[in-house]
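Researcher: I'm preparing a figure for a lab meeting and need a structural model of a single chain. I don't have an experimental structure, so a prediction will have to do for now. The sequence is pasted below. Please return the structure as C-alpha cells so I can convert it later.
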Amino acid sequence: MASNPIFSASFLSQNVLSVILGGGAGTRLFPLTKERSKPAVPLGGKYRLVDVPISNCINSGMHRIFVMTQFLSASLHRHISQSYKFDHFSRGFVEILAAEQTPTSTSWYEGTADAVRKNLMHLTSQPFEYLIILSGDQLYRMNYLEMLAHHIEKGAELTVATIPVEKDWVDGFGIMQMNDAHEITRFVEKPKDPDLQEELKMPRDWYGKLDIESEADLWLASMGIYIFNRKTLLELLDNSHTDFGKHIIPEAIKTHKVASYVYQGYWEDVGTIKAFFEANLDLTSVIPKFNFFDMHSPVFTRPRFLPASKVNGGQIESTLLSDGCIVHKAKLKDCMLGIRSIVGADTEMERVVMMGGDFYESQESIARHAQEGKPAIGIGPRTKIYNAIIDKGARIGKDCVITPKGKPPEMDHELYHIRDGIVIIPKNAIVPDGTVI
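Model: Understood. Here is the structure written out cell by cell.
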C-alpha cells in the first residue's frame, strides 16, 4: 500500500488519532461472543477481528490507536497487549478504553457517539486535528491516508466512508446522497420504505464518474468509518445524542460540511454468524476476496512461535491450515482450521470453521479426561461434521455426527446452537463419543 507523500510521519503522529469501536454485546455473533468481546472473535485461523482495523491503521502510518469496548474485554486486552508493542522512542500505542464510571456518568456506552463522548477526556489529552473512527467487526483493506487526503482536499469538517451496494443491503445500512462536490446532502438510517429507497438510489451519471461498471441499481451505504476535525467533533458531541448513524450524521449535514469518500474495494460486515462463516470459508478459495497473503499491506497479530502444521495422510481440498495443527488421516473440504487444531483419523469435515485451541493438551490431561468420559481437545476419529463452527477448546468425541440438516435454522441446545442454518459448538464445549447432532 503506497503512502500519501503529503503526510509525513511527524504530521500523522501529531495530527491524527484513531478510535476503533468495539461494538455492543455482539448478540448477532452469539455464542461466539458468549465469553469474549466482538473484536476478540477469532478470524482467518490465527487472527482476531480487531487485527483488521488496527493493521489498516499501522499500514496507513497511523500509530496512535484507542479501542473502545465494554463487554468481556479481558481476552481482547490480553490479545492487544501481547500483539502490539511500539518502541519506547515512538509515540505509537494501541490502548483499550473500557467503559468506566465517572463523576458525571455511571452508565455504559449507549451507542457509538455516546462511547466517544464518554472518552473525550482521554482523547483530548492527546494532540490531534483529525480523529478517524472505525468499526471493529469489518473485513476490508483501506489506506486511510487516501480518505484523509480526500477529507482535506474537499475542505470537509466531517467525512463519511461510503460504498456502493445493491438493493439487498439497503435496509441494513445508512444510505446517503451526495452532490457533485461529494458533499452529503441526505442521510437516512436503514430505510425500509420502498418508495424512500427508490428516492435514495444513486443516479446513473455517477457510475461513469466513479468508474463503476455494474448494470445493477446501486445505493451509497455508510461503512461506519468517519473522519472528524477536532473542533467539529467537540461541537457535534455537545448534546445527548447517542449514535453517529441515527443522530449525529443526519444532524451534521444540516450545519456542517460533510463529505462522502467512496470506497470500492472488498468490504464485509462480519457482525452476523452467516457473514462471519462465509467470509472465513471464502479465505479457502483459490483467489479469496480478502487476501491475507498481500504483503504490501499485511494483517498483524500476536506472534505465537508455534510449530509447522503436520498432516499424517488423508484427502484435503480447499482448506486453510493455521500454525501448529495436527491432522491425521482425515477428509477435509472447504475448511478453515485455526491454531493448534487436532483432527482424528477417518474424520470427514466439509464447510467447517474450526478455531483450534489456546494450548496443547498433555497426555496426563487426555488420560484424566478419558477416565471422566470426556474426549480430548479437538475432533476425535470417525466423526463427520458439515456446515459448522467449532469454537476454541471444544472436545468432540469419536463417531459423532454434526450437521444442521433436518433442523430449524435457529435453535439452542445444551450442546450446541444453530444460527442461519449453521451449527455452532461453543467454546470449551464437550460433545461425548457417538453424539449425533
